[in-house]
Design brief:
Elements (H helix, E strand, L loop, with lengths): L10 H10 L6 H12 L4 E4 L6 H11 L10 E4 L3 H14 L8 E4 L5 H9 L4 E4 L1 H9 L10 E5 L1 H6 L3 H8 L7 E6 L4 H10 L4 E4 L10 E7 L5 H10 L6 E4 L3 H13 L4 E4 L5 H12 L5 E4 L14 E4 L8 H6 L9 E7 L4 H11 L4 E2 L5 H18 L10 H8 L4 H20 L20 E6 L9 H12 L7 E5 L4 E6 L3 H7 L3 E3 L2 E3 L1 E3 L4 H9 L2 H28 L1 H13 L1
Parallel strand pairs: 1-6, 1-7, 2-4, 2-5, 3-4, 5-6, 8-13, 8-14, 9-11, 9-12, 10-11, 12-13
Antiparallel strand pairs: 15-17, 15-20, 16-17, 18-19
Length: about 575
């Protein structure tokens, strides 16, 4: 008996399973499918990305759907367009031997009227992104009042992206007696709230340990100065010639910039982020799956739709703001029983974050050194030699051999080998011969350091369009720091002050050496004197002191006013959404 048959699946689904070459169910499939087939129950399944969750809920949903009825019976919500399309395509493959069963994908970036037509023609199962689904409900283009099953896939990521209100609203249009199946990699408080509000005594399934990464993924970190981050990325790529990787950046801007730099430097790279059109995203993903792209630079949100089994490396160009996001990132590699590597490039001030990630994923990181130019040359030469030894001879070259032999007859075998390999060796040797060591000199453990704070003066302020929040965001991005890396931001009319940890002094001064903002030079200095003397130095004695006092008072009032607006009018949520949009 087929191992999938033992789970209770119908013959039509087993036929599709065999046709796709599936041999044995994954752990989450073994645990979830029998429960969902035999019982009418709610379920919460906690399992990492890449563990086969789509089949775990897809097989039972298809088997329980009446293909003879045109009424929508199942709704699947997923966070991104890519994942929505991926799920819909997989369900179509699972149900290809079931006549009359139709699955429709609903997502932004495509014609809403065409999607509405597909539903009207009959869609027993709808796979949708929350935003587009809410839009279609508002326009009365879809009816989900009779569904029997609702699946929340990647629930934690949907809530991270700010879809809490949309999900609440969508579920309010569904019947109370439906079954809700929630699948998530992690279980944050918001996911628990959804479960309590819309589910009744759900069965809980946990695959592995909560919040842990794949057992097939090894975790490494490399410590460099922030200004050397991009060069470190290139060396890691050069030291792994067969690399097929996803590189994660925090923002769309960084994603585009890193991808453009890699392309300019001769790497097969591309960017994947929320500013691309659907057609652009499809072309990028097609090229990546066909391995025409070796290095896909992506934001966390855009990468949710990546389902490629052979990714060799995940490179965290920047650590995510939310530590639990790291589990999603590392889940892009080590799939289908294959091994993978998750690399993290950090500055000294970020090393303490590694310890926090280790607690979440329950795995230890190995500190490694950025390879030297000499090591890279050696790796590349042996890689070339291996490629040559494995290459099949193309006998169409035979007709050219007499002429080639005539050109090369003066050289010995050893000389020919040297000349041949010198072509590849020279390329890397010339590039790296004067390259510096990118590894930081200090190897201190910064996990629990509590360094003193340094205050800085910067010559931009309110007249440049900054308030404390905008300046803090600007500084975090310019300095490539996490959300707590910059503090005590105090914005004046024409200048401002801010603090960082004292260990960042060299980095701050180096980043802002010859830094320009819209054509204007930005000057940053360490502020050594007292607050009273600062006012005198910058604003001319007593007038500066009085002016400073007035601005400080107004600054605190303005800050209190903003806090009240946030509390009463959702201002904080609006800011969060702006930040989330930049992560896409």
């Amino acid at each position: 008996m087929n191992k999938f048959e033992a789970l209770g699946l119908d013959e039509s689904i087993i036929k599709a399973v065999n046709d796709m070459g599936f041999e044995s169910p994954s752990e989450v499939q073994e645990k979830a499918i029998p429960i969902l087939l035999e019982e009418e129950t709610d379920i919460v399944a906690l399992a990492q990305t890449g563990t086969g969750k789509t089949a775990a809920f897809g097989f039972p949903l298809i088997q329980k759907t009446d293909s003879s009825s045109r009424i929508t019976q199942g709704l699947i919500l997923s966070p991104t367009r890519e994942l929505c399309l991926q799920i819909a395509n997989e369900l179509k493959n699972y149900s290809k031997f079931i006549s009359g069963l139709h699955t429709v994908a609903i997502y932004g970036g495509a014609s809403i009227t065409e999607q509405a037509k597909q539903i009207k023609r009959g869609a027993q199962i709808i796979v949708a992104t929350p935003g587009r689904m809410q839009d279609m409900i508002n326009r009365k283009m879809v009816d989900i009042s009779n569904i029997g099953y609702c699946v929340l896939d990647e629930a934690d990521e949907m809530l991270n992206m700010g879809f809490y209100e949309d999900i609440n609203s969508i579920l309010s249009h569904t019947p109370q007696d439906k079954n809700t199946w929630l699948f998530s990699a992690t279980m944050p408080r918001e996911v628990s709230t959804i479960a309590k509000k819309f589910m009744s005594n759900p069965v809980e399934i946990t695959v592995g340990h909560k919040n842990t990464g794949s057992k097939n993924v090894s975790h490494e970190y490399y410590v460099v100065n922030s200004r050397d981050r991009y060069n470190a990325l290139k060396r890691l790529a050069d030291a792994n010639p067969d690399i097929f990787s996803v590189i994660f950046c925090r923002t769309k801007r960084d994603t585009q910039k890193v991808a453009e730099n890699l392309i300019e430097d001769g790497y097969n790279a591309a960017a994947l982020h929320g500013d691309l059109s659907q057609n652009q995203r499809d072309l990028v993903m097609k090229s990546f799956r066909n391995r025409q792209i070796q290095m896909l630079v992506a934001t966390d949100v855009a990468a949710r739709g990546i389902d490629v089994d052979d990714v060799t490396h995940v490179i965290n160009y920047q650590l995510p703001d939310e530590i639990e996001t790291y589990t999603h990132r590392s889940g892009r590699t080590g799939r289908a029983g294959k091994s993978g590597v998750s690399m993290v490039i950090v500055s000294k001030s970020e090393i303490r974050k590694i310890k926090s990630v280790e607690r979440i994923i329950k795995k230890s990181f190995e500190k490694k050194e950025i390879p030297s130019g000499e090591e890279i040359c050696q790796v590349q030469l042996f890689h070339l030699a291996n490629d040559i030894s494995k290459s099949e001879i193309n006998h169409e070259i035979d007709s050219y051999l007499p002429s080639i032999n005539e050109v090369l007859e003066a050289f010995s075998k050893e000389e020919l080998i040297k000349k041949f390999f010198s072509v590849e060796f020279s390329r890397f040797h010339n590039y790296y011969k004067n390259a510096k060591d990118l590894n930081t000199v200090s190897d201190r453990d910064h996990y629990n350091d509590r360094e003193s704070s340094t205050r800085y003066f910067i010559n931009v302020g309110e007249k440049d369009g900054f308030d404390w929040m905008k300046l803090k965001d600007f500084l975090k991005e310019a300095l490539d720091l996490g959300r707590d890396g910059v503090n005590r931001v105090d914005v004046k009319e024409s200048f401002s002050f801010f603090n960082t940890g004292s260990e960042l002094q060299d980095k701050v001064l180096e980043v802002f050496d010859n830094y320009t903002l819209e054509g204007r030079k930005v000057n940053v200095e360490i502020s050594k004197d007292s607050r009273r003397n600062r006012g005198k130095r910058r604003n001319g004695g007593g007038e500066g002191k009085n002016f400073k006092g007035r601005r400080r008072s107004e600054g605190f009032k303005g800050r209190d006013r903003r806090r009240n607006e946030d509390k009463n009018n959702g201002g904080g949520r609006r800011r969060d959404r702006r930040r989330r949009n930049d992560r896409k």
